[in-house]
Design brief:
Layout lengths: L13 E4 L2 E7 L4 E7 L4 E5 L4 E8 L1 E6 L2 E6 L3 E4 L5 E5 L3 E8 L7
Antiparallel strand pairs: 1-2, 2-3, 3-10, 4-9, 5-8, 5-10, 6-7, 6-9
């Protein structure tokens, strides 16, 4: 197996939703997503089978997870279990890192 190190700055950002610019790394078991999100951008309510771990690196992001409202700030880490409805809005410009298990094929 060949081990390499990716430079995040070398990855192309893809606008997956209006205001959501993602860079993605996929392994055999998981997907890492690095998001730059513009203030006011809306993540519509959705579900997916994947366990999601989200860490807010900078900014503030309001989320509704399973019917509960939260505001997450830099340093917050949250688990979103698979198949739980969630949505959100960027209250400021944000940087958020997500880990998805298993691999998010739809983000390839």
């Amino acid at each position: 197996m060949k081990y390499t190190g990716e430079l995040l700055s070398d990855l192309e950002a893809i606008e997956k939703l209006p205001g959501f610019f993602g860079k993605f790394i996929h392994t055999a078991d998981m997907t890492l997503a690095y998001w730059d999100i513009k203030k006011g951008s809306v993540l519509p309510e959705h579900t997916h089978m994947h366990t999601q771990i989200a860490q807010v690196i900078s900014g503030q992001f309001a989320m509704n997870i399973g019917g509960e409202d939260h505001v997450y700030k830099a340093g917050n880490v949250v688990e979103i279990p698979g198949d739980v409805p969630h949505s959100g809005t960027a209250l400021t410009d944000c940087v958020i890192y997500d880990i998805f298990l298993p691999v998010r094929e739809d983000l390839k």
